Task: structure prediction
Amino acid sequence: MLRRKIQSVLKDYFQSDSNKVLLLDGARQIGKSFIIRYEGNKFFKNYVEINFLEDKNGERLFENVSTTKDFYLKLSAIAGDKMGPKKDTLIFLDEIQAYPELLTLLKFLKDEDRFTYIASGSLLGVTMNKTLSKPGGRILKKKMYPLDFEEFLWANGVGAEVISYMREQYRKEESIDESLHRKFLDLFKKYLLVGGLPDAVNTFIDTSNIVAVRAVHDEIFGLYKEDASQYDSDNSLKIRRIYEMIPSNMENKKKRLHYQDIEEKKGKRNSDYEAELEYLISSGISLEVLAVSNPKFPLRESEQKKLIKLYLNDVGLLTNLLYRYNINAVIVADNSINLGAVYETAVAQELIAHDYVLRYYDNKTKGEVDFIVDDYDTLSALPIEVKSGNDFKRHRALDKFVQNEDYNIKNAILFSNSRDVQRVGKVIYMPIYYVMFLEPSVPEEVVIN
Result:
């Protein structure tokens, strides 16, 4: 079984007697249902799972449920023998977006507090926006993503001791030794090929066969496109077109989404595709990177929602589309292959899994950076540059950026394949696998006197 970081969240929730219903949001095929099922059966004597998407495509037992009385009646029809006391009974409401009205009902189910509830789904952002009566303060929503690199290391048998050692080296801005570097750079490149979708990771662990792993990628990529068709039949072609454009956009210098290319019509703009973009981002199958016009802390103040980049939610899906079965394109250093888009996708995947908002800055005269995040410790913006080649120390745009005194930049990080950690001016050079340790610091408490 794959160990996931979300397990600690589930454990805390199940043991907390919370006054909220935990709602786990994320793309399909990332392991939400499996991990809730696994933890739920550990903590509760009576475990009941209802998949509303299957119900909607089958018996439609819960289709017209509008009151808690109706819900309990239907629940008893399929799980009457498991409806015990709250402390012993977990009701898992899976794919809850299939019946949006049940999101509203969650509030009343929680108020009556007969059982412990947990829910999961995809497209929850879109669904909740369309729900007239929202569940309000009764919902605790958490996002889940494909396996990040540390979870991938766990899956491949890497022990806690060596990861702890690497984390300490990262904090001290020091390198690991050459043998460990080779091992973890090799594992990172395998992560680029396999990605973090659980079925792909399990297939890799069981077979080490890239052909079998790619078959999983094909199936999930097709599923994501099919979901788009079912979600919005009127705009499904545009949604699929934008989704399929992501890899080619990543090969462009700016990597931005060009709206006129979607339907090959001039004059198109962001407002013409708001619904399609909302689907791709809210469903979790695409990662949105927003431009900022002024790269100063806090970055939210200067977000530009029209100039966006889109990344696939999983780097394995990208390398499947770009290189198919040729693993040497990633594993073997080859200057003829530009892996910039692949490395950026992996870093975007890592940053968003660590609760960062994805943003970038691009200005011809003032410099540009791949990603920029808020650093709350220094009250400044932290630029992050990603390099896949050997010339990673050539970065005029980043130099221009950090030297601009108006931006108040304290530090910048440049990730590359190099082992050596060193600080040159404001730029800290780090090996690419250290990205797994980059996360916002959260203190245990902050006392206001």
In short: The chain has a mean pLDDT of 92.
